[in-house]
Fold this sequence. Notes:
Chain A is mostly beta strands and 115 residues long. Chain A is built from no helices and 11 strands. The mean pLDDT of chain A is 91. Chain B is mainly beta. In chain B, a hairpin with a 6-residue loop joins strand 9 (86-94) and strand 10.
Amino acid sequence: NAGVMQNPRHLVRRRGQEARLRCSPMKGHSHVYWYRQLPEEGLKFMVYLQKENIIDESGMPKERFSAEFPKEGPSILRIQQVVRGDSAAYFCASSDQSGSMVEQYFGPGTRLTVT
Amino acid sequence: ILNVEQSPQSLHVQEGDSTNFTCSFPSSNFYALHWYRWETAKSPEALFVMTLNGDEKKKGRISATLNTKEGYSYLYIKGSQPEDSATYLCASLLSGGYQKVTFGTGTKLQVIP
């Protein structure tokens, strides 16, 4: 059973370009969470999605950032018109259900560098 | 406490020493506390999930305690080994927050052989 997959692992974009980060949850998992780790900072919650639904996007900047988790295919975090401040590691995690006792399984992360 | 705070930020111990570090979290609306172990260049890996005041969990040489009334959890490592070197993250969930977790910034542990 493959773990959570993220691609690409490293992404370099110039200012103003778009970045698309993909996350394939573990098999059987229908809950996906995106986190961002800025340099020298901890993990910050961005968005929580279930299949075809955004449950909580309170941690995601309102402009330029969007996320989706379609019925088929991976979850995608999209950053439009990237700026240098978007340079960070973006992690996704998945779980098979919601609830306080449910563990989240993390992917290896995508390191975005904006030049 | 409004945020999840961890201390110390980093720690160096000799192989064989026991060590512990702290996670402080908001005690109101507490729902659950998670501990993760995060090795360099890998993904965070879940260690413990704790919900009950006074709970104590153990996995090998690592154990954790929880005090929900005062809002803190301790993680203990007995007889540290070089392979314990990692960043240890705690994350709290508040009631009504389904799976929205708030992470601390972690304690980076380096075990010196």
